[in-house]
Amino acid sequence: MQEIYGYELCRWKLVLVTVGVICSGGFLLLLLYWMPQWRVKATCKKTTLKDCEVVLLRTTDEFKIWFCAKVRVMPSLGASPLQNLDPIVHKVPNGHTVHFCESAAEENKNYLKKYLPVIVSGIRYFTHHSVKYFWNDSAQSFDVVRGLDDSTFCSSIHNEHSRGLTKEMRDYRKMFFGINEIAVKVPSIFKLLIKEVLNPFYIFQLFSVILWITDEYHYYALAIVIMSVLSIVSSLYTVRKQYVMLHDMVAAHSIVRVSVCRRNQEIEEILSTNLVPGDIMLIPSNGTIMPCDAVLLSGTCIVNESMLTGESVPVTKINLPNPSEYPKATGDEIYSPEAHKRHTLFCGTSVIQTRFYTGELVKALVVRTGFNTAKGQLVRSILYPKPTDFKLYRDAYWFLLSLVVVAGIGFIYTIVNSILNEVSHTIVIESLDIITITVPPALPAAMTAGIVYAQRRLKKIGIFCISPQRINICGQLNLVCFDKTGTLTEDGLDLWGIQRVENARFLLPEERACSESLLKSEFIACMATCHSLTKIEGELSGDPLDLKMFEAIGWILEEATEEETALHNRIMPTVVRPSKQLFPESKQATDQEMELFELSTTYEIGIVRQFPFSSVLQRMCVIARILGEKRMDAYMKGAPEVIASLCKQETVPVDFESVLEEYTKQGFRVIALAHRKLESKLTWHKVQTINRDAIESNMDFMGLIIMQNKLKQETPTVLEDLHKANIRTVMVTGDNMLTAISVARDCGMILPQDKVIIAEALPPKDGQAARINWHYADTLTRCTSSSPAINSEDIPVKLVHESLEDLQMTKYHFAMNGKSFAVILEHFQDLVPKLVLHGTVFARMAPDQKTQLVEALQNVDYYVGMCGDGANDCGALKRAHGGISLSELEASVASPFTSRTPSISCVPKLIREGRAALITSFCVFKFMALYSIIQYISVTLLYSILSNLGDHQFLFIDLAIILVVVFTMSLNPAWKELVARRPPSGLISGPLLCSVLSQIIICLVFQTVGFLWVKQQPWFERWTPESDACNILDATNISSAHSGNETLDDEHNIKNYENTTLFFISSFQYLIVAIVFSKGKPFRQPCYKNFLFVTSVVVLYVFLFFIMLHPSELIDTSFELVCVPYEWRLRILIIVIVNAIVSVLMEEAVDRLGVCFLSSLFGYREKTPKAKYMHLAQELLVDPEWPPKPRTTTEAKVPSQENGSYQIITLT
């Protein structure tokens, strides 16, 4: 959602801005480039959207990001792309027909002038994030131009749109919809360079470099230029590489040649870029890559949708039924690609095979093109991602702002000091120089180092990352949602057994389904036909569950070839039959007897019509006919509760629920089967067009298939590690709820002693309000009429914990299915936070409900991770703070992280690396803050005596110390295990601020002590080339020989005793704080295991000790140091040692006592926790009505009532 405002160009404002740009030397232009809202407001005046020339857009989320776009005018014959052009075209003089081109070429302009009388006034539009928005006069707003996926009825698709388009209509629509292409334009290197260079930080660096060159800091300026160039080149290479990769992925199959059927039945071959909504596309029999979203009008297609779903299992797509052909149809409905996805071929998916009638081609109606397609929306989400909202990055801006404030103070101090000392020639340069000292130029490189190293370590352990900024956020994850099948449990299911029903009674479970006695039973016929299996290159392919079921009965599947289909005037059915080994054969049979036997045992079933499995309906159905039978049969399989509700009640066993519960509590996956004999009047063609609802009713319940889904070996261990680390785990699955609860108990997600409360929500019905019935999963079967009283042991105990983080470990869990979750979201908004606080099992969840659950958890301030195998999890993987796909397919492009090994062991590894990267970021921030302040203190003290640090001194500090230390201190690997404590989420926290402030004070004190103490020395004097504090000048000749040059070289007064003292002290301080801030356990390995860091620090210490205690004339000359007595060097050493001891002890004290100290110092009272879920957990501890008691009902109140939105009623 976005707010939109209209503006038109204002000439006098434009003149003023031009003058301002010239006067500011172009800085105003840069400011307006960075702030689009200022740019529009400064050059335009507000007007209505109808008359505007520029639109200003602002997102309505928490980020409030501004965009601007120019409004353009397009000449057109009509106001809507889907309107009928016939009445307009008839008005064209001389009966000519108008043809339109995409580009506004000269010939097209001349052509438009020729037919100007017929052209409606131009249509106004603008483009934003690759989508066109056209002016809607009736709604008085700009709207996205929609294809046939918006407000088009299914009957209209068949009756009006199935005839195709004329070329004139195609050209007209193309003006609105544009080229059918998901164009990921790879920007030129020049454009990327300009965009990168105009980054505020690089502009600041350019300003700094100019200033340093003016001040003759040539070496440092050159070093910063080299570092900036390397940074820009690296950034350009990375960004361009990502664009090229995305472009190649999208463009691989985006342009193909397709055949379209025109309105005059003429078949035309065109490029897919010329397709528009309304075109009839012919799907070739050997398959194709879909270049658009299209709805299937005739025939059947087998499609691989791995690009969108992450699931490489072939999906069967059937033609969209025509409601007008159903006399008994419930009514026409609006077509929706999501609701009718079993009839929709999505862009980017691969059509493997087609099946068709003779003489009738497989046709699909184009409904969406370009960026409006499902694939286009996925690419847009990658091209224009939602900003990552993380406290660390928000606090980073405050950190920089605080440095700017400090720089401002130094700026004012320098000006005042220069005026007081009557120094005018350097006042501007030195006052500006203090700003460049305070804001460190190496900050961006330093911040990205830790993330880059973490990304490399993740790659080594098989976790690939396409969004590096998410690594830090993963360090904060405190809740992880897991898909069940294929994630917590093994991918494949094994058939445990079957339990048939006869005369509405369950028979004993049977282990084998391929016995001779069951060969021709309706139960086995259902197992043989009710699936979506197909043969691809001779191999059976399809859903793993269907494969296991079909393999268990030992039947053979045969599909009609194209030649066989061509001989008939209808689709040849897929045929299934038992293998010969299943029939009892006589050992001594003659040839004649054998022939008779083969004839008698010819038992085949043809699958006439298939209604594919729908996750919404939770079932699939087929219509089949046994060879030689006149009547057809309908077979259905799916979720037991759903199947039982569609069967005749007299065929469902009385103990159905208890038997089902027994299986699901043991963790089995249960599938129910049903059968119905269809009426003899149903002909082949009627079956092809009949409504699904007409078939799926009044079925006979046949029994259950029991599948075993084993836990993955590593699942319990990984979940135990997460629980020990106080990370909540939640199961989100499409499976049965009791099965999910059983698996949750088996894997340790729900502990044996914990209670599970099932929330069964019912929507409003017959005037009754929506309600939630509360049941306790373990007591459902125990509650009998003889014991109506509630056992006190069944009510969960509320535990009061010392740590708020432990509140999530309470003794009860909520479980609910997708239907209940939907009702609660709609009618019980106030209950949602309470339920997600303790919700552990969410079963029968549709893909969009998984995303809604992730959002609900984020709304109560959880940092949510999502781990799924890619199938149906794409939305949730994208929405979570850290989405980890266990599928390496193309759909993983939507997930920030992808694991090469399909195991949840990647989750704790990712969190450990995230925590290490986050702590590294804090260490770097703290170190860079201290680096700036230490240098700021040194320079400020030296400014007081009109001195400064030398060029080579700056160079040594910034390059040899700072860069080396920053890039090596970030190399600490992650700690080997997850701990219960999480790192802080932001820079602005008590202990962290206390740590930084205490180190700043220590550095300030010891530098000031050194600065003042050196002045108290008996040998101290204002240094001149003739000064001889070390008593080494025994000849005046030497002095006079060098005096002229020294004076000439030291016009900035660099050489003095104060400078030398502060240089040594501050150089050691950088290394001291680097060691102090290089935290190891519990989130990173200790710094002594970081070989490069230890080596760098040791080498720098040795070098500094050497030049301080054993001065070398060459080094002293290079660094512009002066000779001081050896006793003073030893005193500097004492200052450094005491500084190091105090710094280490202070940091240790802050680590252990920081929070208590701050609380007592500032008189902090215990505050309400910041996270909403912790605050809510505190409230629920004292709420006598929570958790709900067994056998109670929560009713939604009618809107007229004021207090609350629900009430609790105890049922008797």
UniProtKB/TrEMBL annotation:
EC number: 7.6.2.16
Bilayer topology annotation: Multi-pass membrane protein
Annotated ranges, domain P-type ATPase A: 258-382
The UniProt record lists the keyword Cell cycle: no
PROSITE patterns: ATPASE_E1_E2 (PS00154)
InterPro entries: ATPase_P-typ_cation-transptr_N (IPR004014), ATPase_P-typ_cyto_dom_N (IPR023299), ATPase_P-typ_P_site (IPR018303), ATPase_P-typ_TM_dom_sf (IPR023298), ATPase_P-typ_transduc_dom_A_sf (IPR008250), ATPase_P-type_domA (IPR059000), HAD-like_sf (IPR036412), HAD_sf (IPR023214)
UniProt xrefs under Pfam families: Cation_ATPase (PF13246), Cation_ATPase_N (PF00690), E1-E2_ATPase (PF00122), P5-ATPase (PF12409)
Ranges where the P5B-type ATPase N-terminal domain occurs: 3-136
Primary site of residence: membrane
Catalytic function, reaction form: putrescine(out) + ATP + H2O = putrescine(in) + ADP + phosphate + H(+)
Keywords: ATP-binding, Endosome, Magnesium, Membrane, Metal-binding, Nucleotide-binding, Phosphoprotein, Translocase, Transmembrane, Transmembrane helix
One Gene Ontology term from the biological process aspect of the record: intracellular calcium ion homeostasis
Similarity comment: family membership: Belongs to the cation transport ATPase (P-type) (TC 3.A.3) family. Type V subfamily.
Name of the protein this chain belongs to: Polyamine-transporting ATPase 13A3
Lineage start: Eukaryota, Metazoa, Chordata, Craniata, Vertebrata
